């Protein structure tokens, strides 16, 4: 036996010497720090290991022990890999969604410009004179707000999908929610009108919407709404339109198709007149009942799913309620619930109901009738959650009985959403576990780093106003941020995370005099953790009841696995040290019982992990399907954008013939420096005045919607400057309030450049 190797007479004299030879584990060092900051020690009983205590740190680390390779570890490794892939794919999807929105905005700008030109031509045909100046955003404050909103998506991508990108890791989730709390608090503190809280399209509202698009939110929508929506869209011929004017128009169309003759009913009537029509009323009445029944089934499904709502979304609801009560203590429960409902339904649930294909809840786009029904269901749910005193669409007032019948029910649900615990203690424990890890890393792209650097520098006067602020010191050392790199050069890099100002955990625990944790406590917990590792690696040793820890240590020390041999020898010495200092007896029965309980708990944990893997595999497939959908949508938008550019660049007034029809090249049109100056196109020039008469510009359109501006000096064949422009680029600059276009030698007025292009190339 191992006991015969030790001289009992030396135990007392070796007590303190043995402790001096003991090196605490990394988690032990983190535990010392936790104890020094006041975290309670705990009992050491594994039944209580999951509560907020220093002792629980070892059990929490054991749940993800990378030094063991049993079935639990393999399952956890698979789960971690699956979560990482979901997080990465979610980030890719977010980027694709941004690209689609970007192209959509470009298409809208071109169409808007084309429509404005058509209207201008129509007005010009009736008026002698017309003001040809291009409008701008008059309110500088609004322009600044617009620019800040244009930046927010990039920042949100970095924050929610990179910095806190591990959507299933509690520490990152809780840190992100802490940031939410700060942002929401600032929003409430600065609000002056209760009615506008969280309703406008602000960075805060975008942040909240983006949060719901993370993996857990998408999982909830898929599990809760998918079946209900698919059942509805199967009924392709079910028409539940309740807008009286639309019902009236469809009624006339049906009559004409049936009879083959024009209908005698008057056309082009008002909404009110259509509503008074008895036939329309007869059609709508049963539809109202069915619509309320369908919406009621959606509502019941949502209410019964409260335990599936992701913790983070419920916690945000809780913050909205508490912040509202603090800011507006006289606010009624009715008003508070309308704010909570505005977030939960308007920004989370309803978008998925209205566009289920965008959330991959359905296989294909719903046909017109079910799509309209889903829109009406979402409108009714929103009216129920927001409880408006009026409706923008008068016909929705006919559904008020549903709102009245369910307002108590929805209020209870919205208040119940807020009944979740806080995560602050859990976050603190996660932070200490993070301290026990050898290194923390962040996977981030170059452009994300440069953009974040730029934003921090831009707002440094608010973020770090003092000279000695840590952020201010770092920004000064970094200097100006580099320019954004092209997408193909935008590589991902791994950044190690650390703080130069962080107080390091002392390697010598005796230096932490403020800690209540003794070296004996830490030695006991390290020994138990190492013993659990050995039993998990050699599960046959756990069959003996009760566990004999000395025998287990000996079996490991004499095994054929070199890593196990080292652990066996180490844990054997640690057991003897515990005897020497009087923390445990020679049988170690108390620790053996705790090891056995820990093994049982970890066994049940494996079943939970396997269940979570099964659930998340469905989520991952859905997210990948959504990625394919977005890619196809992006390609369609690219083709459509080019088509709009072509139409914008080639459409001409009636009676005019296209020039250069075969190659579609228009121009060049020549302008002198003096001419462009006179027309207000050139606002600044670096060309010496005595040479300006020798400068001229050629503007041509090689392909529709694209332009080349060339700057020439008389006597030279080649241009001294050339710039490619797209009309939608200029329109975007105009919309964002960017006034100047820099051509190195001259600076041009964006609005006047657009006017020139429209005049010469689009209105020929």
From TrEMBL:
Alphabetized InterPro entries for the sequence? RasGAP_C (IPR000593), RasGAP_CS (IPR023152), RasGAP_dom (IPR001936), Rho_GTPase_activation_prot (IPR008936)
A cellular component annotation (GO) from this entry? cell cortex
Keywords (A to Z) from UniProt: Coiled coil
* Coiled coil recorded as keyword: yes
Entry keyword Coiled coil:
yes
Q: What residue intervals traverse the membrane?
A: none
Annotated GO molecular function terms are:
GTPase activator activity
Q: Which residues form a coiled coil?
A: 65-92
User: Mind listing the GO biological process terms from this record?
Assistant: negative regulation of Ras protein signal transduction
Chain ranges of the Ras-GAP domain: 171-386
What this protein is called in its record is Rho GTPase activation protein
Q: Which organism is it from?
A: Neocallimastix californiae
């Amino acid at each position: 036996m191992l006991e015969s190797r030790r001289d009992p007479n030396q135990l007392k004299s070796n007590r303190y010497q043995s402790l001096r030879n003991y090196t605490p584990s990394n988690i032990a060092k983190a535990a010392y720090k936790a104890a020094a900051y006041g975290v309670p020690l705990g009992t050491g009983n594994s039944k209580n290991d999951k509560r907020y205590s220093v002792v629980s740190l070892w059990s929490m680390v054991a749940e993800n022990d990378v030094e063991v390779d049993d079935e639990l570890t393999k399952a956890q490794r698979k789960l971690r890999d699956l979560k990482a892939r979901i997080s990465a794919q979610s980030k890719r999807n977010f980027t694709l969604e941004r690209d689609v929105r970007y192209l959509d905005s470009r298409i809208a700008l071109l169409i808007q410009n084309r429509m404005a030109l058509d209207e201008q031509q129509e007005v010009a045909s009736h008026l002698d004179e017309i003001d040809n100046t291009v409008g701008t955003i008059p309110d500088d404050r609004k322009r600044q707000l617009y620019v800040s909103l244009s930046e927010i998506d990039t920042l949100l991508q970095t924050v929610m999908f990179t910095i806190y990108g591990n959507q299933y890791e509690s520490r990152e989730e809780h840190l992100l929610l802490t940031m939410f709390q700060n942002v929401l608090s600032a929003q409430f503190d600065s609000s002056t009108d209760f009615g506008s809280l969280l309703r406008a399209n602000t960075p805060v509202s975008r942040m909240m919407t983006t949060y719901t698009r993370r993996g857990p939110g998408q999982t909830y929508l898929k599990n809760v709404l998918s079946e209900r929506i698919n059942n509805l869209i199967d009924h392709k011929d079910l028409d539940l339109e309740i807008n009286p004017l639309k019902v009236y128009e469809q009624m006339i169309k049906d009559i004409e198709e049936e009879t083959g003759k024009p209908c005698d009913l008057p056309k082009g009537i008002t909404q009110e007149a259509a509503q008074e029509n008895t036939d329309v009323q007869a059609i709508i009445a049963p539809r109202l009942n069915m619509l309320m029944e369908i919406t009621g089934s959606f509502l019941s499904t949502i209410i019964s799913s409260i335990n599936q709502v992701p913790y983070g979304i419920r916690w945000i609801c809780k913050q909205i309620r508490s912040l509202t009560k603090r800011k507006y203590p006289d606010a009624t429960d009715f008003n508070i619930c309308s704010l909570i409902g505005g977030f939960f339904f308007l920004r989370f649930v309803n978008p998925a109901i209205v566009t289920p294909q965008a959330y991959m809840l359905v296989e294909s786009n719903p046909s017109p009738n079910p799509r309209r029904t889903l829109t009406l269901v979402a409108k009714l749910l929103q009216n129920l959650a927001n409880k408006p005193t009026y409706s923008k669409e008068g016909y929705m007032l006919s559904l008020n009985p549903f709102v009245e019948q369910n307002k108590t029910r929805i209020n209870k649900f919205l208040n119940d959403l807020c009944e979740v615990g806080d995560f602050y203690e859990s976050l603190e424990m996660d932070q200490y576990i993070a301290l026990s890890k050898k290194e923390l890393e962040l996977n981030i792209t170059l452009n994300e780093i440069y953009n974040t650097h730029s934003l921090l520098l831009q707002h440094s006067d608010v973020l770090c106003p003092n000279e000695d602020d840590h952020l201010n010191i770092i920004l000064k050392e970094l200097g100006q941020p580099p320019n954004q790199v092209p997408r193909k050069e935008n590589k991902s890099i791994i950044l190690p995370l650390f703080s130069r100002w962080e107080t390091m955990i002392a390697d010598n625990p005796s230096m932490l005099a403020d800690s209540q944790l003794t070296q004996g406590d830490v030695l006991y917990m390290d020994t138990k953790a190492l013993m659990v590792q050995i039993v998990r690696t050699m599960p046959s040793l756990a069959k003996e009841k009760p566990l004999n820890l000395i025998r287990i240590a000996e079996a490991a020390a004499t095994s054929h696995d070199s890593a196990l041999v080292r652990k066996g020898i180490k844990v054997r010495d640690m057991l003897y040290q515990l005897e020497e200092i009087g923390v445990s007896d020679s049988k170690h029965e108390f620790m053996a019982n705790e090891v056995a309980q820990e093994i049982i708990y970890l066994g049940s944990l494996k079943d939970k992990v396997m269940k979570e893997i099964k659930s998340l595999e469905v989520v991952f497939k859905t997210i990948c399907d959504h990625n394919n959908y977005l890619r196809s949508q992006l390609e369609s938008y690219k083709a459509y954008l080019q088509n709009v550019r072509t139409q914008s660049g080639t459409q001409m007034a009636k009676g005019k013939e296209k020039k250069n029809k075969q190659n579609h090249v228009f121009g060049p049109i020549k302008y002198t420096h003096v001419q462009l100056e006179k027309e207000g196109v050139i606002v600044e020039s670096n060309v010496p005045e005595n040479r300006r008469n020798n400068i001229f510009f050629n503007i041509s359109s090689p392909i529709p919607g694209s332009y080349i501006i060339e700057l020439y000096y008389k006597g030279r064949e080649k241009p001294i400057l050339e710039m490619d422009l797209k009309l939608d680029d200029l329109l975007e600059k105009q919309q964002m309030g960017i006034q100047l276009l820099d051509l190195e030698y001259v600076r041009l007025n964006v609005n006047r450049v657009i006017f020139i292009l429209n005049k010469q190339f689009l209105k020929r």
